Amino acid sequence: MNTTRSDVRLANEAWEAVMTSHARLTRLFGTEKMWGEVSMREYDVLYTLAKAAKPMRIGEVQQGVLVSQPALSRLVDRLVERGLLARETDPDDARAVRISLTEQGAELQRQVGRVHARSVTRELSTALTEAEMRELRRIAGKLAAGAPK
User: Fold this and answer.
1) Is residue 124 a contact partner of residue 91, using CB atoms and an 8 Å limit?
2) How confident is the prediction for the chain on average, in pLDDT?
């Protein structure tokens, strides 16, 4: 690949724009009153598990959240203690554990999620047109998938 200075500059400016917008929105959402009995990071784990069709290993959960593995393990422990998550032995590997939402965790995720979804909609639809949101979804999905192998 032949990379020019302008390619490097453009790529880094695009990256900075993504990270700056993420930081701004995360700070904004963090100040809102929707979180109640969960933090944003805890909600992120609940949401990741809610999207899954089955219990997940902690490594799978980590792919969907912005928390280190040790921090995620402690966070999961706290959510289990509070009755929001359940642990079960992995049927494919008895040494491993899978985690899932309890009914209480699923209900809390839905309650917070409804309010959070309205906040996300408010912020994105104020800044972007519907076509731009579709394009953002497409581009972000492409980045999330990584380079073709």
Assistant:
1) no
2) 93
CB-count burial class (<10 Å; 0-12, 13-18, 19+) for 38: buried
Q: Write down the pLDDT at residue 40.
A: 93
Gyration radius (Cα) of the chain, Å: 18
Distances (CA, A) of 141 to 23, 53, 75, 108, 138: 19, 20, 27, 27, 5
- Of 3.40.190.10, 1.20.1050.10, 3.20.190.10, 1.10.10.10, which CATH number belongs to 36-145? 1.10.10.10
Q: Quote the CA–CA distance of 93 and 97 in Å, as a whole number.
A: 8
By percentage, how much of the chain surpasses pLDDT 70? 99
CA 38 to each of CA 54, 75, 97: distance values in angstroms, whole numbers, following the listed order = 22, 11, 23
Tokens describing residue 64 = 């969907």
Characterize 105-134 residue by residue with b for buried, 16 or more Cβ atoms within 10 angstroms of its Cβ, and e for exposed: beebbeebbeebeeeeeeeeeeeeeeeeee
